[in-house]
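On clarity, I found the account of how folds are encoded harder to follow than it need be. An entry of this sort, consisting of the sequence and the corresponding C-alpha cells, reads as follows:
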Amino acid sequence: MPHVLVLNASYEPLGVVSLRRALVLVLDKKAVSLEDTGVFMHSATSAISAPSVVRLTRFVRIPFRGPVPLTRRALFARDGGRCVYCGGVATSVDHVVPRSRGGQHAWENVVAACRRCNHVKADRHLADLGWRMKRQPAPPTGLAWRIIGTGHRDPRWRPYLEPYGTPEELAHLAPMHHADGPPMAPVELSA
C-alpha cells in the first residue's frame, strides 16, 4: 500500500504514514490533502482521491528529536544505494573500522558496500588494502532525513522537503508531473 507524507500545520515534515491512516485523518477533518495521487479510493457510498501529501489542521508540538536512527534503509539512502568503495550497487552494510577491531556501529563508521568489496575487505582496515572512500561517512542531518530514511519515496513530496534538505539528499526525489506518476492499483475501502 502506498505511503503518504504528513506535514504539520506549519508545513514542517512530520513523518510518513500508510494511505489508510492518511485517509482516516482527512475524513476525520484532522488533515487536508495537499497533493493527490490521481487514484480514487472507493467505498460503498463514496469515492475520494488518494492523497500523497497531507497537512494537519492543528499544529502539533514535537518534542526534541534526537539523531536520525541508524537503519539499513537510512544508510542506503545516505549512500545513494552505491558502494562507497567501488561505486557499484550496494547490497550489504560494512563497518569501516571492523567491529572486531573496536569499531562502533555508528553513522561515522558504517557504510553501504557491494558484496564483493565487503567480502574482500573482511575485517581489515582500509589502509591494509590501500583503499580509499569517495567521501567520509557522517550522520545525516535535517528534518528531510526523517522522511528519506524511511525508504518511502514519492516525487510529489519534493517541494515540501526541499526547505529541510540539501539537493544531494533529495536527488532521488526527481520532480515529476502528476500525470507521470507511477500507476497504483485501485484499493477498496471497507464500509
